[in-house]
């Protein structure tokens, strides 16, 4: 039987469910991968801005709300309960890649292979970690980058009805994004991210939900956060109601 907390959540998100009609079951809550054809790499001195809605990605999800991916500078971080965006990490070299720690879950193997198979002379791995209510998951809609900044946009998607979860608990997702440009960790000093309540206007990750934005491209309500320095750090508290997705 579905827990009462789950039933209350579904009653409170009728509009969101309607927008996700026809969704498929999320296969493997702890990880999923999307692939694309990489574009040509860029020199590190390139100052242009580029973007894509279908980068190569893999995801690690855990149910305890703590970051599943972090750097070896410290023990596994304790989440900042005042912010959904927990961390942003630039991996620009093999030596830095060797400092990445991943919690012991089935998706960890795919995440390690994803990093290992990156050509750092022309590609960069961007790792971003978010807290999300346990009955939701994130879908990466868009990533854009410049020699000094990286911006991301996510959709917050309700899990299928038969996925067991607790409405008042937090999960954490680390998204590993392969950027087809050779960014420098020393140069990237600004991060920006937003999370919308409507589905992306491109196919979701394998086994996940699909959907389209409204006719005007409206993403619905959006949470935003901006940073000005690299990980490890926590972003300033978000202006949105922290309980807004429950």
Question: Could you provide a short overview of the structure?
Answer:
The chain is mainly β and 246 residues long.
Please give a structural write-up.
This protein has one domain (4-35, 49-227). Helices cover 12% and strands 32% of the residues. With 246 residues, it is mainly beta. It starts with a helix and ends in a 19-residue tail after the last strand. The chain has a five-stranded antiparallel β-sheet. Strands 2-8-9-11-12 form a five-stranded mixed β-sheet, with no helix packed on it. A two-stranded antiparallel sheet has the order 4-6. It has helices spanning 4-12, 14-19, 94-97, 107-116, and strands spanning 33-34, 50-52, 56-62, 69-71, 85-91, 100-102, 124-133, 136-145, 149-158, 170-179, 190-196, 222-227. The radius of gyration is 17 Å and the shape is globular. The longest helix has 10 residues, at 107-116. The chain is built from four helices and twelve strands, in the order H-H-E-E-E-E-E-H-E-H-E-E-E-E-E-E.
Please outline the major beta sheet. Answer: 5 strands, antiparallel
Tally of separate domains: 1
Distance between the termini: 20 Å
- Mean of all residue-level pLDDT scores: 73
Low-pLDDT segments, ≥5 res: 9-45, 203-219, 228-246
Order of helices and strands: HHEEEEEHEHEEEEEE
Please tally the helical runs, counting DSSP H or I stretches of 4 or more residues. Answer: 4
The overall strand count is: 12
Keywords, separated by commas or semicolons:
five-stranded mixed beta sheet; 12 strands; disordered C terminus
